[in-house]
TrEMBL record:
Active site: H166 (proton donor/acceptor), C182 (nucleophile)
Pathway, per record: Cell wall biogenesis; peptidoglycan biosynthesis
Gene Ontology BP term (one): peptidoglycan-protein cross-linking
Name of this protein: L,D-transpeptidase
């Protein structure tokens, strides 16, 4: 039976939207992975991904680096985070980075990982924003917690750097410099990265 042209075209459009593969097969974009997620008793809302620039959506890209697979490379200038894979590939995520005066770079490692973490604002942040003093003992996990659904804690040679790779409910901040230095990802993306990156993994921030 011959399929109608309209049906064929619709099928091709749907396949492209879900798989996100380019015509030359150079990368895969995960457009369909930003729906509502039930996780540990929380219901993460869907991200209106059509409002996020395509370059900041999770995708597999070609990536030329001397870093070993499993390494996380944070490109603060371009607002990308790369999880290095074998074969010259990487998973690329869009990120939000530190605003002016809060930028940083260097090498660290993932010392710990937490699902639905508690957020404790540093004393310096409380000094700048006294209204946060109520969370001095820690803000409980939840949908509005600034660390989102996952956090990975970065340590360097001096111990806890104070910086984190973490989720955020503020999907609109991806691609911007708005944080106090931490690297933020959409919650659906931090869950994906959390499942890939291991404790002890090297993190390079450039």
């Amino acid at each position: 039976m011959r399929m109608k042209p309209i049906f064929v075209a619709a099928s091709l459009m749907l396949a492209t939207a879900l798989a996100g593969c380019t015509s030359d097969g150079s990368f895969q974009m995960f457009n369909s992975d930003y729906g509502s997620v039930s996780d540990a008793g929380y219901q993460l809302p869907a991200v209106p991904i059509y409002k996020v620039e395509s370059k900041y959506r999770r995708q597999i890209v070609s990536y030329d680096t001397s870093e070993r697979p499993g390494t996380v490379v944070v490109d603060t200038a371009n607002k990308f985070l790369y999880f290095v894979m074998p074969g010259g590939k990487a998973v690329r995520y869009g990120i939000g980075v530190g605003r002016e005066g809060f930028e940083w770079h260097g090498t660290a490692r993932i010392a710990a990982k937490r699902e639905w973490p508690t957020w404790t604002p540093p004393s310096a942040m409380i000094g700048r924003q006294p209204q946060l003093a109520k969370w001095r003992g820690g803000m409980p996990p939840g949908l509005m917690n600034p660390l989102g659904a996952r956090a990975m804690y970065l340590f360097n040679g001096s111990g806890d750097s104070g910086y984190r790779l973490h989720g955020t409910p503020e999907w609109f901040s991806i691609g911007k410099a708005m944080s106090s230095g931490c690297i933020r990802l959409m919650n659906q993306d931090i869950i994906d990265l959390y499942n890939r990156a291991e404790v002890g993994a090297k993190v390079v921030v450039i």
